[in-house]
Amino acid sequence: MVFSPKSARLVRAAVLLTLLLLMSAALAGCGSASGSASAPGVQHLAVDVSTGDYVPAELSATAGTPIQITFSQGQGCATSIVFPEFNLKTDVSQGPKTLDLGVLQPGDYPWACSMNMKHGVLHVK
Fold first, then answer.
1. How many domains does the chain have?
2. Omega into 56 within 30° of 0, i.e. cis?
3. Stretch 90-118: mean pLDDT, rounded?
């Protein structure tokens, strides 16, 4: 297929526009699952829920620094994550979620599934 110079410019412009739209869509999804991008100085923790359990079930963090925990997409009862201390409940059955817990004081912050059968704890020292 042979393009005229004018149609070749149009094709290049369409390709460039498509690439720009794809890049902007990709960048829009780069934040955390809670919808906000993570900031420097934040402690990032991760829990795998893909097996139906919380792995690891115990996390450690340092008091005085913001904490974010990302729970992967999961299955079973463990997809419901309840932090009673924060009156927070989320579901990861449809995809991972990042919970921004902010700056916490030293202490233990347990979480469980909504049926209280699966458990985890965040130790802040």
1. 2
2. yes
3. 96
